[in-house]
Amino acid sequence: MYSKLFSVTMAAAFCCSISQIKAQTNVADDFKPSPLNQPGQEYPQVNSQGYARFKIKAPQADSVKVSLGLGGRGGTRLIKGTDGYFTGTTEGPMDEGFHYYHLTVDGGTFNDPGTLNYYGSTRWESGIEIPARDQDFYALKNVPHGNVQQILFPSASTGTSRRAYVYTPPGYEKEKSKKYPVLYLQHGWGEDETAWSNQGRANLIMDNLIAEGKTKPFIIVMTYGMTNEVKFGGLRNFKVDNFQTVLTDELIPYVDANFRTVADRAHRAMGGLSMGGMETHAITLNKPDTFGYYALLSGGLYTPEETAGKAKPMLIFMSCGSRERPDGVKTAATNLKNAGYNAVSYVSENTGHEFQTWRRSLHELAPMLFTK
Amino acid sequence: MYSKLFSVTMAAAFCCSISQIKAQTNVADDFKPSPLNQPGQEYPQVNSQGYARFKIKAPQADSVKVSLGLGGRGGTRLIKGTDGYFTGTTEGPMDEGFHYYHLTVDGGTFNDPGTLNYYGSTRWESGIEIPARDQDFYALKNVPHGNVQQILFPSASTGTSRRAYVYTPPGYEKEKSKKYPVLYLQHGWGEDETAWSNQGRANLIMDNLIAEGKTKPFIIVMTYGMTNEVKFGGLRNFKVDNFQTVLTDELIPYVDANFRTVADRAHRAMGGLSMGGMETHAITLNKPDTFGYYALLSGGLYTPEETAGKAKPMLIFMSCGSRERPDGVKTAATNLKNAGYNAVSYVSENTGHEFQTWRRSLHELAPMLFTK
Fold this sequence. Notes:
The structure is a homodimer.
Chain A: H1 2-14, H2 20-23, E1 32-33, E2 45-46, E3 52-57, E4 64-66, E5 76-77, E6 79-80, E7 85-89, E8 97-101, E9 103-105, E10 108-110, E11 117-120, E12 123-130, E13 147-155, E14 160-168, E15 182-186, H3 195-198, H4 202-211, E16 219-223, H5 241-258, E17 268-273, H6 275-286, E18 293-297, H7 304-307, E19 315-321, H8 326-338, E20 343-348, H9 355-365
Parallel strand pairs in A: 15-16, 15-17, 17-18, 18-19, 19-20
Antiparallel strand pairs in A: 1-2, 2-3, 3-7, 4-5, 4-9, 6-7, 8-12, 9-10, 11-12, 13-14, 14-16
């Protein structure tokens, strides 16, 4: 079945430079509501090929556009019907997985009232999910579930209580004497501490891996990386100091005091996606005695020169989507391996700088953590 | 200071039947961004009198309306400026506290891109907060904080894993042998399990009360009351059976197995707001051996006839806003007291069927729970 779908998908993809009407003769008529719709909402919809279809009520509006569309083509313009609804379908199939988007209604930016919202691009955006062939690994299944809890930890350096989310694995409450390792997992620029469980489904990925016996149970801590607060004029100007203080001087001691953790570097990992990878890179190199496992998800590379002379990490994991720079992570891992490090690269097929890459990366990473 | 504000507010309120321009000569020029705005967003704004001001970019739109306004007056119509922004101020002051709203842009329903969203009216709506004189009791303060965690519990009766949020009080993780009472706390129609912590700030109300030594620490469990799934053709048609099964046969056993609870009726309370109060009323009367404390927040009344002959509740709490039917809860409490019950009524001043009433009600209720 998959090969059949694939051939249709590829055909459609190659047609995209010709007129929309022609291309859309190949569109399968099996549209269903996106899994991320608000309760009871029929639109947006997605089909088995990855096309997305939108329907927006705005009877007196002149123009409704959807920011989502094929890369660089400026989104999808919806067509107004006599019933007051604007409708339209993406010109081609979207990558599998999660996508942010928004509407432009008569020149103003609004969210699609049909969908749930997700924090990205420094705002709560509409979300849509293109069901993926491998969606099973992050599906909600009838397995024991861990919990995701909001904690508010005191932060003297920023003069407030700050929020983090903590995933505790299934059984955490019952096995009262067991202690767990911890992964500190960072979101990307424009996102916040909600991203990894909302968009990333980190908790379900872990629940499923644990149920299959594929990973050790561990805690995941996700907090706000302050990535939107810095004067972010390009990567060169980013300073990690403020966040490093919050993370290593405030959050980690709080987590170690309030959760049953094994509080040493061999049982503490740091990882992050995109901008969160840059933070991970900087902080692990600044604090090599704090973290024993490093992971960059579409978030840069380590070189043997950077890590030389410091406490040796048990694992360096680097990943990205195949539409990013897969050769970069592969070469970096090879260089690190040649220098004697336990380095692993992973490339997510047919995805770019987006959450499907990072869901898959976490799924690959988790079984390698805390195994030394 | 408060009396001064009050006189201005009242004057403005009495003016509201005359022209908007005239009324707004009384509007104080101290507008600030609503506390519920998305990070960095300047609008909507609120002033010290409770007026709300909106600013929406929609250069090509003809009409933008805000659903929020004085009761029954159909909201606030915004005026388009030459800069492409629509602006406007409510005709009069709003009640203190939290309000849901949405925009109508050229006939379509959208959220205000400036604000956070809250689930109400069976959709994620824009939220705005009118700072209240008594906002201190639900403010985020530098006190020990409890956690709010998402749990996914197996539900055979509905064939899925269902979500609940669990508030555990400060110290829950550290005091590993201590067991806690539990309040099951329900949202209203159109809302879901996120309402009590997002709109209601139940966790902060508890943190602050506990820090002041005014209440015993207890756990709060908030789950989806299925109130939006029933064919809800008026209260008469509501059947509580499905939700009662989820709550008493599935969720309570799960919570008792996975959290350190005292699993008896003397340490188990049920409360709810509006529709959640109706559920509380029905389920406590159906299962008098399960719950020892009952609370209806703008959610109906108990009569001595209903409770007669059943296990006697340790407390019956009934509340509402002064703009609802305060005499109803007062009379019901008197009748119950005369019949030998420990019944309490509470009326929130100058509020209606809205979250400020319910925040205050929880603040009043918590110290009375689990004291027998």
